Amino acid sequence: MTTAHLVLADGTVFTGRGVGAPGVAVGEVVFNTSMTGYQEIISDPSYAGQIVTMTAPHIGNYGVNEADLQRTTPALAGLVMRAVSRTPSSWRSQGSLPSYLESCDIVAITEVDTRRLTRHIRSHGAMAAALGSDREVGELRLLAERHGSMSGRNLAETVSVAQPGMYPAEGATRAAVVALDLGMKRDILSQLQRRGIEVEVVPAATATADVLQRRPDGVFLSNGPGDPEPVTAAIATVEGLLDRVPVFGICLGHQILGLALGAATYKLPFGHHGGNHPVQRLADGSVSITAQNHGFAVDLWSLSPAEPTAATGELPGRDLLPEQVDTAFGPVVPTHQNLNDGTLEGLACTGIPAFSVQYHPEAAPGPNDATELFDQFAHMIGAGDATA
Amino acid sequence: MPRRDDLETILVIGSGPIVIGQACEFDYSGTQAVKVLRGDGYRVVLVNSNPATIMTDPEFADATYVEPIVPEVVAAIIAKERPDALLPTLGGQTALNTTMRLAAMGVLDEWDVELIGAGLDAIEAAEDRGRFKGIMEGVGIATARSHYVTTLDDAADAAAELGYPVMVRPSYILGGGGTGFATDSAALRPIVANGLDESPIGEVLIEESVYGWKEFELEVMRDAADNAVIVCSIENLDPMGVHTGDSITVAPVMTLSDREYQEMRDEAITCLRAVGVATGGSNVQFAVHPGTGRRIVVEMNPRVSRSSALASKATGFPIAKIAAKLAVGYTLGEIANDITGATPACFEPALDYVVVKTPRFDFSKFPTTSGTLGTAMQSVGEAMAIGRTFPEALQKALRSLESGAWGLTGGAQERRLGELGDEALLEVLARATPERIFVAAEALQRGIAPDMVAHRTGYDPWFVHQLLDVCELRHTIATSDLDEELLRTAKRHGYTDRQIAALAVLDDDAVAEMRRSLGVAKTFKTVDTCAAEFEAQTPYFYGTFEDECEAPVAGDRSVIVLGSGPNRIGQGIEFDYCCVHASFALAAAGYEPVMVNCNPETVSTDYDTSARLYFEPLTVEDVLGVVEAEQPRAVIVQLGGQTPLGLAAALEQAGVPIAGTTPDSIALAEDRERFADLCRRLDVPQPPSGTAGSAADAVHVANAIGYPVLVRPSFVLGGQAMRIVYSADELDAYLAGLLGSGTIDLAAGPLLIDQFLDSATEVDVDAVFDGAELHLGGIMEHVEEAGVHSGDSACVVPPPTLSEGVQARIADLTLRLARGLDVRGLINIQFAVRGEEVFVLEANPRASRTVPFLSKATGVPLAKIATWVMMGASLADLRRDGRLAPSGGSIPGRTAIKEAVLPWKRFQESDRVLGPEMRATGEVMGIAGTVAAAYGKALAAAGHAAPRDGTVFMSLNDRDKVGGVAVARALVEHGFRILATHGTAGHLARNEVPVKHVDKVGDGPYDPVRLIERGDIDLVINTPGNSRTRGDAVLIRRAATRHDIPCVTTLRGASLLVASITEPPHVEVRSLQEHHATLVRSGGS
Question: What contacts B1042, CB < 8 A, 6 or more positions away?
Answer without folding.
Answer: B194, B197, B908
